[in-house]
Amino acid sequence: MISTAPVVPELLDFLNEATTPFHAVDAMAWRLAAAGFTELDNLNSRDIEAGRGYFTIRNNSSIIAFRAGRAPLSAGARLIGAHTDSPNLSIKPNPLKIRHGFVQLGVDVYGGALLNPWFDRDLSIAGRVNFVDQHGVLQDALIDFGRAVATIPSLAIHLDREANQNRSVNPQKDILPVLLNADKSDGQITLQALLSEQLRIQYPEYEDLRIIDFELSLYDVQKAAVIGLNEEFIASARLDNLLSCFVGMKALIDAEPHGWSFLVCTDHEEVGSSSAIGAQGPFLIDVLHALSNSDDENRSLRQHSWLLSVDNAHGIHPNFSDRHDENHGPLMNGGPVIKVNRNQRYATSGMGAAMLKLLAESAEVPIQTFVVRSDLGCGSTIGPITAAETGISTIDLGVPTLGMHSVRELAGAADVDYLNRLLIQFLNHRA
């Protein structure tokens, strides 16, 4: 059997906690705090001590953590970038529909989700709720039902004989989850009432509250797991891209404190990153400006820094190998993947790829390369966006994944350890 590194079971625990971007940031924050990092609402260079770790959060769904180096900031930093969001089904503001004896939820598709795998899964609800407490103060809190409360039943094949040949999914009509059985009294039911009841369970201190708004999504309650006859795979929801967030956080905690090191995990990558807290927003720029003592130091910092944009890569699928370029099919458990696209859908340059290959050699980590087929469109990452916004030289990297954007994805257990070792080497290397 494959011997999995300690990072793998820790990753599974994290994946099970991080049911939404809000929960992912919360799970990272308490782990960073336990490792000695200090949360700061307002960054100021005068408050930073060399060798110590800090983090700051925006919107409860984006986080930047860093360890202050003993070397000058102008000498540059090593940054790891990832994103906290994953494709999902998000609950609409007025979602409840009572139809044919069922109470159902209206949902929006967030990001480029594979929809068919959402059918016949045990689904729960999680997210952030805004409410007025018993003192009339507007509050927000994370909520997670933590159990299966909904499902999206498939239409029986007897009623759709072409289902295995040609079934498309209409996101407005076909994927409304069933929440509960309706009777005559359910005409007055509201989602706010259900949320209030759950909030009181999670937060007994709020004796009286009124729900004002919410940001909620559905998730599959099946736990993350190590699978495969030799336990060589990790199966879980949200591997894209919480795997990268967690391993990046572990590397930041374990790296040497000599140079400046950052972890940048932002929301909204799956919908383009164009938001106040996305990679195209001002979050990272604001942090770098706050830590710099002058414009010259800030400019020197960015010119001498490297950023790894770590986002899952397309592993070669044994049933669909023709969807890969024949020389660029990353293998599961074959090591992290450098992602290259000359049209700048990925930010990797020849110099960046060469540097990373040398670091992989020194860390004894196998490395692979992905280039999309010339006749297929190429996805993108936070890499080109962050490079354009900051001017920081950037490399796109990720572990091979199957089922990307499905409700349950697959990655290699050995690749998690490989990535962890490579990221630590990246943060420690300053030449």
From TrEMBL:
It comes from Luminiphilus syltensis NOR5-1B. One of its GO terms (biological process) is proteolysis. Its cofactor is Zn(2+). Pfam families: Peptidase_M18. GO terms for molecular function: aminopeptidase activity; metallopeptidase activity; zinc ion binding. CDD domains: M18_DAP. This is M18 family aminopeptidase. Belongs to the peptidase M18 family. One of its GO terms (cellular component) is cytoplasm. Keywords: Aminopeptidase, Hydrolase, Metal-binding, Metalloprotease, Protease, Zinc. InterPro entries: Peptidase_M18 (IPR001948), Peptidase_M18_dom2 (IPR023358). Its EC number is 3.4.11.-. It comes from the Bacteria. It is an enzyme of class 3 (hydrolase).
